[in-house]
Amino acid sequence: MKFVARQPIFNRGRKVFGYELLFRSGPKNVFDGASADQAASDVIADSLHTFGLEKLLGGKMAFINVSRNVLVDRIISNLPPERTVVELLETIEADDEVVAACRWFKDNGYTIALDDFIARPALERLADLADIIKVDFLATVGDERKRVVDRYASGTVRLLAEKIETPAEYEEALKLGYNYFQGYFFCRPEMVQSKNLPAFKLNQLRFLREVSRASLNLDDLELIIKQEVSLSVNLLRFLNSAYFMWKDRITSIRHALVLLGERQLRTWASLVSVSTLAQDKPPELVVTAMLRARFCELLAPLAKMDAAAFDLFVIGMFSLIDALLDKKMSELLPDFPVSDEVKMALLGSPNRLRGMLDLVLAYERGDFEHALSICKERRMDPEAVWQAYQEAVAWADKIFMVTTKPA
Predict the structure, then answer these.
(1) Which secondary-structure segment (H or E) carries 377?
(2) How many whole angstroms separate alpha carbon 363 and alpha carbon 390?
(3) How far apart are CA 173 and CA 22, in angstroms?
């Protein structure tokens, strides 16, 4: 059984610079000994053949962990140099063969990164060759984070702060001068003080509440959409995009609503509203919400929960609404006309719906041991889950381009 997941790496503008590809070939979520060689070799093969680099990366850089043997044997040279960051595991020592291999990769256009870097004399030869140095913010604390910047930051070396889990850690790394950031800080709400939502976000929330009702009223929805120009433009652009292949161009709101149908209407409304609510957030937050929503939805038949498919879509999409609005989930949910089961799942209470979100979150973080345990508990085929993840990644990236294009 093979698994690949991706984790975003941001630049200082909070745009995605690349994705670290996380691979596991079995239930143990570790790299140890020979398994590191196998993992690196397999993620290269899978990236090229099983999944396809474009579907995984969407035009971004690929950060791929390599063991000593994979590095020295040049196995990663099968990947395109202009898109590949060769990330040396922290266990690699700077012997002559390793240094020679790094020089070869640099001469051939690859980017060299050092993973989990801790300054020590034995690694200076590699630090001199590195393009990117990754600093673990969990292991490197206090003034040491700044000392790394003072010692290694230059015009050619860029520093990446990894395991950044909160907005405060991101702001610290930004202030210290780090160039790139990896972690789930963008998925966490920043609740420094109570914030009043601007009018356009309140309108989107009202719209989101309307399409979350058990019974839709097309007359009410048409009126809301016509009153909010951005919704009208987004709806017509969405339906006239290449994502659909209608015979005739859609020109009226009523025609659009009828053509979409209830399920597609609810899906479109969720996507557009979340995209609008995230205007002041990293774009990857929208991609992550969409990926979670689609992945949750695709898990429904695999878990024999077909009737709950849209509830699962909602849970995936709304799982980041606290980060979108910088408010506690418990403050936001009472106003939404969704079932108690959906609300409890979003608040973290264990139930059948929450189990599917937990599976999605395990995949997102590369915690494949936990993902496999959930699959076993729910009697789900891990291979089918992997296929669902692939489909969700491709769908999220594609639909993001449609729903977030400026009006």
Answers:
(1) helix 368-378
(2) 11
(3) 24
Amino acid making up residue 67: S
CB-based contact 181:173 (threshold 8 Å): yes
Is 16:10 a contact under the CB 8 Å cutoff?
yes
CA distance 29 to 1: 13
Report which DSSP code applies to 196.
Answer: P
Per DSSP, the chain holds a count of helices (H) and strands (E) of 19, 8
* pLDDT score for 24: 62
Q: Are residues 203 and 156 in the same domain?
A: no
The one-letter code for the residue type at 363 is Y
**CATH code, domain with 210:** 1.10.3210.10
Low-confidence residues in the chain, pLDDT < 50: 27-34, 193-194, 407
In a domain, 390, yes or no: yes
The pair of structure tokens assigned to 75 is: 């196995």
- pLDDT reported for residue 42: 61
97 and 224, same domain (yes or no): no
The residue out of 187, 218, 253 marking a domain boundary is 187
Q: What is the pLDDT of residue 382?
A: 92
Measured CA to CA, the distance from residue 266 to residue 273 in angstroms comes to: 11
Contact 46, 89 (CB under 8 A): no
Please report how the helices 253-277 and 218-227 are oriented relative to each other, as an axis angle in degrees rounded to 10.
60
CA 46 – CA 29 distance, rounded (Å) = 18
Instruction: Identify the domain containing residue 229 by its residue range.
Output: 199-403
27 and 372 in contact (C-beta within 8 Å)? yes
Q: What is the pLDDT of residue 33?
A: 43
- Total count of residues recorded for the chain: 407
Q: How far apart are CA 274 and CA 282, in angstroms?
A: 12
Residues 84 and 129 in one domain: yes
DSSP 24: E
Determine the Cα–Cα distance for residues 113 and 98; give it in Å rounded to an integer. Answer: 13
Output the six-digit token pair for 348. 């973290």
Assess whether 182 and 290 both reside in one domain: no
Q: What are phi and psi of 6, to 5 degrees?
A: -125, 145
Q: What is the pLDDT of residue 351?
A: 95
Q: Give the position of tokens 């790299």.
A: 31
- Beta-bridge partners for 134: 160
The torsion region of residue 228 among left (phi > 0), alpha (psi -120 to 50) and beta comes to: beta
For position 158, what pLDDT does the model report? 95
